[in-house]
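Quick one: structure for this chain?
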Amino acid sequence: MVERRIDHVEVEIDGVRCAVAVDLEESPLGWLARRRGRDGSRFIAPVQLIAGERLRADFTRAGMAPRLTANWDAVTRTDQRGAAPGLNASEASFAARQRVSRAMEAAGPEFSGLLMDVCCFLKGLEQVEQERGWPARTAKVVLALGLDRLARHYGLSEAAQGPSRARTRAWRAAVTGGAGEGL
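Got it. Here's what it folds into:
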């Protein structure tokens, strides 16, 4: 039996934060996130991993992966009694398709194909380079640029930044009565 390396990554989808289990042995992004370059830095940053896994989660929810078996979704019950409030399965799938489409539009034609291949179809970098006729080790650089653009689309960044100076606020207790009261 193959031992799996499962890690939990926190992802925000439609304003809801949830932990997503990532199989680090399955995902090319997980492999890249574990490896370090000569300078000791990771090949991809945690924010890039989160962006790529968020794209993959939406791709999976949208049901966009090619099917290898029959689609039995059509024969399931459509009775909504006892169902959780919110979107039904087809609405959730449609919303996920829209999110994938917006992410690919934000990534642009330069990066969208590569992001789909690596993040969604789980192709390795060597396979991508071979299919596209790229020189060795170029896919890693292009992928990092694409993941940066994807992270920016999702509103993710390495560090939180606020205004350079916050507005000063003061809270005071009201002084009433004689000496010592109200303190």
